[in-house]
Amino acid sequence: YQRRVRGFFLLRKKMEPPQTKNVVCTIQPEKQLLIVTLNRPTTLNSVDPDTHEELHQVWDFYERNDELRVAILTGDGRSFCSGMDLKESAAGKGLGSFPAT
Asked: Which of 12, 38, 58, 59 has the fewest CB atoms within 10 Å distance of its CB?
């Protein structure tokens, strides 16, 4: 995309967010905006270890891109986020499986 700086147009490399299963990223470069959507509506967007790791990748991507100024975290479906996935926790995939941040 193009960005105007002091009367000149600079061509910027297209930013590509990480491709993940449980987290959907949308970039609006003209607004310097990253929209991060939790995409597990059947579990009310609860966070399991995989989703936690995906969010970690997304925030690393956001931090590396100076073109982005704002990130909005939202959830798909009727709930933003119900917290930790308790079914995963009961199955032995609880806090010990979550990566350290």
From this structure: 12
52, 84 in Cβ contact below 8 A?
no
Q: Tokens 């509506």 correspond to what residue?
A: 41
By the 10 Å C-beta count (0-12 exposed, 13-18 middle, 19+ buried), 54 is classed as buried
**pLDDT tens digits, one per residue of 12-21:** 556 688 889 9
Q: How far apart are CA 53 and CA 4, in angstroms?
A: 35
**Strand duo 33-38 + 23-28: pairing:** antiparallel
